Every structure is written in C-alpha cells, then in structure tokens.
UniProtKB/TrEMBL annotation:
This is tRNA uridine 5-carboxymethylaminomethyl modification enzyme C-terminal subdomain domain-containing protein. Gene3D superfamilies: FAD/NAD(P)-binding domain (3.50.50.60), GidA associated domain, C-terminal subdomain (1.10.150.570), tRNA uridine 5-carboxymethylaminomethyl modification enzyme MnmG/GidA (1.10.10.1800). Residues 693-706 have a biased composition (Gly residues). It comes from Chlorella ohadii. InterPro entries: FAD/NAD-bd_sf, GIDA_C_N, MnmG, MnmG-rel, MnmG-rel_CS, MnmG_C, MnmG_C_subdom, MnmG_C_subdom_sf. Keywords: Cytoplasm, FAD, Flavoprotein, NAD, tRNA processing.
Amino acid sequence: MLNLDRIAWQPCNPAVGGPAKSQLVHEVDALGGEIGKMADRCYLQKRVLNASKGPAVWALRAQTDKLEYAASMRRVLEETPNLYIREGMVTSVEVDANDEVCGVSTFFGITFACKAAVLTTGTFMNGQIWVGRQSMAAGRAGEAPSTGLTERLVELGFETDRLKTGTPARVDKRTVDFSGLEAQPGDDEVRWFSFDPAVQRPREQLSCYLTHTTPETHRILRENLHETPVYGGWVDAKGPRYCPSIEDKIVRFADKDSHQIFLEPEGRSTPELYVQGFSTGLPERLQLALLHSLPGMENCKMLRPAYAVEYDYLPAHQCHASLETKRVKGLFFSGQLNGTTGYEEAAAQGLVAGLNAARRAAGQEPVVLPRESSYIGTLLDDLVTKDLREPYRMLTSRSEYRLVLRSDNADRRLTPFGRQLGLVDDRRWQLYQDKQARIDAERARLEAVRVPPNHPLAEAVEAVSGQKVPAAASLADLLRRPHVHYPLLQRHDLGAPTLDFAAGSGVASAGETNGSNGTGRSVSSSSNASAAVAAEAAAAPAEGTGGGEQPPAEQQAQQGAAQPLTAAEQEAVEIDIKYEGFIRRQAKQLQSVAAKHARRLPDDLDYRSIQTLSMEAREKLSKIRPRDIGQASRIGGVNPADISNLLVYLETRRRGGAAAGDPSPQQQQRQLSRKAQRKAMVAAAVGAAQGSNGEGSSGSEGGSSSEGGAAAAQAAEAADAVVAA
C-alpha cells in the first residue's frame, strides 16, 4: 500500500452503484464483501435509476461521504483477523526457477516472501497528471506514482500499454447559487446494497443539483481545444468511452447545444462539490472561466482543478479467469491494472483475485466464475477474452442473461457458494436461510389463496389491468397481470405485513396494525384477512366446477396466513411471479448454452498447427488461450466455422488417443472437478431464476487493493498471500 491514509479513497466521484455497477455491488455483498455495506453506512443520498423499466435494469446508486467511507473501510480492514497492512512502494516481483512468485520487493530494499501476490496498482503505475500543457509525475493529485514495477513486469515478459482517465474540478458549495437550480433529492423509500439488515439504517439525505452547459461554455471549449492534452496531441492514451470529458462531448455531439451537469456533495463535513460530467484537460487558468459559464456557478470558487491522468496497465488477456497470470504462477492482477474503470469493477476483481491468491497459498484449486452465473463472471470473462484497448466499464447490455442475473436474487445465486468457500459467516448464513424460507412461504401462499370475483381486490385488479378476473383466481394470478403490484394486495389486507429492520427492532408495519403475533411485534390485519378470503373462496365453487374440487376451507385458511416480509422480499416474490415465464425461458437457454460451451480445451493445444482454422483465429486463439469452447467462441476474429472446425479437431484428437497424448490422471481429475464446479454454479443461477433456494453458485467480492486483501484473509486465513497496491 503506497499510503495507509488513502485506503479505500474515492479519488473521483464518491458514489457507488449505477447501471450494472449496482448488480456487481449486490453480488459482492452476497459473498460477504464490504463495498455494499460501506455504501449503506456512509451514504449521503440514494436513488434508483431506470425505475420505470424492468427489474433486470433497475440500478441503485448512492452518493457517499468520501471521508467517512475511507475511515470506515480502514477500520474494517484493521479489525480483520490475519490481515496485516504495510505501507511501501513495490518495485519488483520476485520469481523462482519454476516461474512461480516467491516474493515482492519494495523501493527501500525490503523483500516480503509469499506464495501468492495480488497487484492492484490503480492509476499509479508510472502515473502522469496533466492540466493543459503542464504535467507532473503522480498517481493522482498530491500522491507520488509507482515507479519501477512496470519495467520489472516487462522483464518478466508481460505486455503493457497506457490508458487515460480524468476527474473534474471541485468547487466550494458556499459560493454556489442553488436558488435557480433543479434539486435532485434522494428517494423517499431508501433501498440497500447489502443483504445484511445490520447496516440498513436510514440517514438524513442531501440533495444533488442539476445545472447545464451554455453557449458560452461551448465557445470557451471550442476556442481552446488545442490547449487540452488529447486534442493538443501530447497525450494519445485511450480514455473511458462511457465517461467522456466535457471537450469530448462538445466534439462528439456537436449538434447538442447543452449538456446536463450535476453538482454532488462529497461529504457531510466538507464544503466540496463534485461537478459531475465536467471533467476537462484545459489549463487551470481557463477552468474557472468555464465553471463561471454554468448557471448558478457564476461566482463559484474552485477548490481543486480538474486533471487528466495517464497510467500503465496490462491487458487482461494475460490472465486466466481466476485472475492469475499465465506467465507467473501465483501472481494475480486486479482493478485498473487490468484495464477497468470504476470502484465496483475493482471490488469484484478484488475478491476474485484475493480469494484465489489465498486458495493458492493454501494449496487449493482456483475458483472460476462462469459468465452465466453472475455479472462478476461476465466482467471477468470479458476482461480475459477480449483484447481491450480502452477502459472497460460494466454495462447491463454486456450480460446476455440479465433477466436471470438480477440484483434482487444475487444472494440466492451466490451466497450458498460463498458459504462453501468460507466467505459467509454463520450469522449471514442464518439470515440468508431465514429470508429464503420467508420468500418461499409467501410465494406458496400467493399461489394457494384464491380471491372471489366479487372481492374488492378483484375489482381493483380489473380496473388497473383492464382485464376481467376469472372466478377464484389466486393472488399469484392477479400479480401476473400488468400494472398489478404487491402494494395493491396490501391495500386490501391480502399482502404480507412489512418487516422494517431499518427501524432497529424488526417491527412489522403494513398500514393500520391491530394485533400481535405473539412475539411482541405488531402485525397488520392482513393475515386474518387472507385467511378469511381463502375460506370464502373455498366455500364458493369455481366457475364451471363443483365445490368439491376446491381444497377445504380450513386448509386454505391455514395457507392464507401471511408471515411478515421486508419490502425487498415482497418485491422479490412479485418479480419471480410476474416474470416467471420469461425467467423460465431464459433459464432453459442458459442451461443449453452452458452445456454446449463447457467443453474444456487442453492447456497444451497448439492452435497454430490446426490448418482448418483461419489464420486470424489461429493467432487470436494462441494469444488468448481460452479455457473452454464458450470462451473461444467469444474471441473477436474467431467465427462459427472456426469453432466447428476446432470441435472436429478435438474429436479427432480424442479418438487418436495415445497419438495425440492422453492427459494424466491428475489432469483428468482437475478437469472433472472444474466442470463439476461450473455445473454447480450455473445450476445455482438457474435455480435462483426459477425461484428455488439454489444449491451452489459463483460470485466474488472485494474492491480496491485493501478489499482484495480482506477477502484473501477471510477466504483461507492464509498469511502467505500478499496484496501490493
């Protein structure tokens, strides 16, 4: 760690989540990770993005208190058993005669022996900051770069390249006129990244504000494009496509006469405002004039200038999906070193790298997350399969299975697997089991309880859906209709009471409460109402049938007793029911694809000698060295005909037996165990999609270098794994 005071520091926007990124955070949390809990503890504001769309793309976003976040995360790391933090600049990776990592050395000549090492260098490796034509060596503002490590990695045979990112100016909120700006308050109903109710405590929310660029803003930018590092020509590193600088926006979208700019607080105890969407490489002398051209900012004072930062990275195709490098065994890469951008992507990689480093130090097999199992699996597969030459950002469109891989079922997909790996403690496991039992019981109740056609709920459903309700329809049937949501059931006392863990006591509240469940917790009258409706429906014969075909009234009444659920659990039940057909279809597709793509490719396969492959396919396959047919099919330049020819070659080689060289018994056993692991993880994702508890799945957790270290210590209690940042 270069600077202990900058553990979990958020150097750009202090925010967590957003489209696809929130799914990563939920998945990290489902495996016992910290980033979601930190965001829940330290949030300034929370909002759900894409709320008008389907649940597959709902995205929770939290503005966080940057100072509180870093202090809280450091405290967690310092209290983690078997994790020791040391400040220093790593300049060399030590490798033995077997091409296995055996230690890391610092600038001051200290060598730390290890069986596994994780490099998470962020933007520090030969970092260079640019403000206009002025530059200085730095990883980020006010912090020295990491030097010497790139050169050592090149000596070891790794390919390196340069990327660029940037951050906008910070301004003093006391000098901003908010009276004419549009306030962007947080959501009234606060949602949570973590599945742990212990961190679900509501706080006072701060507003963000919306302003916009003006013709004067655009004039200043157009007249001074030559003063920026990229358009001036003295920096040619690729920047993030999905987070462009303001000058990039002016050039790319020349037809637009205005762009939205958000003013976002950086903390409760600091006057700094983050000017989102306004990063620039202009000289500092022009930045203040640019800020003054924005409405509400005419008299603002700039506290920190915007800057661009250029840094070294290593294309991640040099890693396996476990994030262990192909050249040096026991050496793992994570975060921006692999070409990604964003705290959430770093967190996901941090867990996988830290977990697998700990497993290697303990002599265990690595964990590989299938693409079909999670957004984390999709992220890792993209990184190690595609030859990326610009900063990678996770998007919902990158996952082919986003209807199955939702935020609400992340724990159903991943927590059992985390439990197997030792990432989920007894308390979290019990919370998970209790939650799934409540969801399963409520879904069974909704399928069992039937509503008479003359019931007020049936009439309300007909009104909102525009469809007639058949006789004795179940509550689940009603939820499947368009525009019918769980709160409608609650308004008619037919939904479950709401457990409010955030209130601190777990007290249930659902409208007017008028009873007790015998535990001292108040419950609404919906349990009694559900039983009454069930009995009434049972007594009334269904249309076209005899009364004897219905279950006995007492049985339906017993099924109709609703147990309290949290709001998130109520929503999960509704999603499972409402989208059941679509989810089942995608689950079948997932199973089919996983079966076809799971065939392992031999580690020693010489692709250049397979004459039936195109020349481009031979080059790409030799460079990436995919682990299975699925990964091979996703490599750019490898077409379906190449995959078919590759399968024919493999079958011919298999039949050739000894001529092609049979794998050793140890290799066969390793391939079988990996295949079984993949099947188990895909089965868990499918099970979650179908509303089951799941048996085992895949996922990961972590974050920055510090979070990767915590995962490593927690996963195997292995003190021989070293994380170098």
